[in-house]
Amino acid sequence: MAFIEAFEASDFASTIISLLVAFAMGTLIGAERQYRQRTAGLRTNVLVAVGACQFVDMAMHLAGPDGAVRVVAYVVSGIGFLGAGVIMKEGTNIRGLNTAATLWCSAAVGACAGADLLAQAVLLTLFVLAGNTMLRPLVTALERLPRDDEATEAVYEIGIRVPAAQASDARARLISQLEAARLPVDEVEITDRPSGESEVRATLVNTSLRSAELDAVVAKLRTLPGVASGDWTRSSSD
After folding, report:
1. I need a labelling partner for 54 at 20 to 30 A (CA). Which of 45, 73, 87, 221 fits?
2. 28 and 139: one domain?
3. Are residues 102 and 161 in the same domain?
4. Could you read off the pLDDT tens digit of each residue along the chain, which spans 238 residues?
5. By C-alpha distance, which of 215, 223, 209, 206 is closest to 170?
6. Residue 65 lies in a domain
7. Which of 56, 103, 59 has its CA nearest to residue 81?
8. 99 with 18, same domain?
9. At residue 200, what are phi and psi to the nearest 5 degrees?
10. Interatomic CA distance for residues 38 and 173, integer angstroms
11. Do 138 and 197 reside in the same domain of the chain?
């Protein structure tokens, strides 16, 4: 049988050691994620680490280091699709970026183990754990520091209310006013209201603006024919 002819005890032992290291390191990373009730917990991180390890280990045995390098490149890009699955957008807020980055690191740990870089796999695991635990107090401290909102990038929205029949024209006028003020527009939405009015709201590209600039634009918009009211809002871009 081909299996018996190709079987080498030393290679098999190397694979076992690589998988055990990947499993153990993935367990350490995943346990911390599971404790904090993240989307990708213990089993996900272990499977990512073990899977990446086996792909790289298989390439090492079939094509040597050159083959392993090619497989690592595919692991790096392929894990991005899995990471994208845990990233969720809620309004202007995005959640799951840290979880996705942790999965990416778990794949790197597995790749190191599969390439027989066991010490590097252990070292990387320690750094990942440090990043997810030791840096949390620093993040909390930074978030509590007073900040100048006008110097911080954020998502701004500018809206006006007009009769429903004038919504399309109002949309064009709103975009024209924003472009004249050199405010970068991301998207414009029209929402019909039960009162017979429509709200035309423009979302600006993430940027930093001063309240006076926005107040001036809204003041001009309120003078346009048919505009019943105008306002602007600010939300964090984190």
Report:
1. 87
2. yes
3. no
4. 566 666 677 888 989 999 999 999 999 999 988 888 887 789 989 999 999 999 999 998 888 888 888 888 888 888 877 777 777 765 556 677 888 889 999 999 999 999 999 999 999 999 999 998 888 888 788 767 665 555 556 778 888 899 988 888 888 888 888 888 888 888 888 888 888 888 999 888 766 677 788 888 888 888 888 888 888 887 765 4
5. 223
6. yes
7. 103
8. yes
9. -105, 115
10. 45
11. no
pTM of the predicted model as reported, rounded to 2 decimal places: 0.60
* 115 and 194 in a common domain: no
Given 74, 109, 144, the domain boundary residue is: 144
Task: Convert 152-164 into a string of H (helix), E (strand) and C (coil).
Answer: CCEEEEEEEEEEH
DSSP state for residue 206 in the 8-state scheme = S
The verdict on residue 1 lying in a domain is no
Give, to the nearest 10 degrees, the angle between helix 9-35 and helix 118-133.
0
* Same domain, yes or no: 31 and 95: yes
- For the chain, give the number of residues: 238
pLDDT for position 62: 84
* Helix/strand/coil for 103: helix
* 126 residue type, one letter: L
Note whether 48 and 164 are same-domain residues.
no
CA distance 217 to 219: 5
Task: Look at residues 28, 131, 70, 62 and name the one whose alpha carbon lies nearest to residue 20.
Answer: 28
Give every CB contact of residue 84 below 8 A, 6+ residues apart in sequence. 100
Residues 6+ apart with CB under 8 A from 125: 25, 28, 29, 109
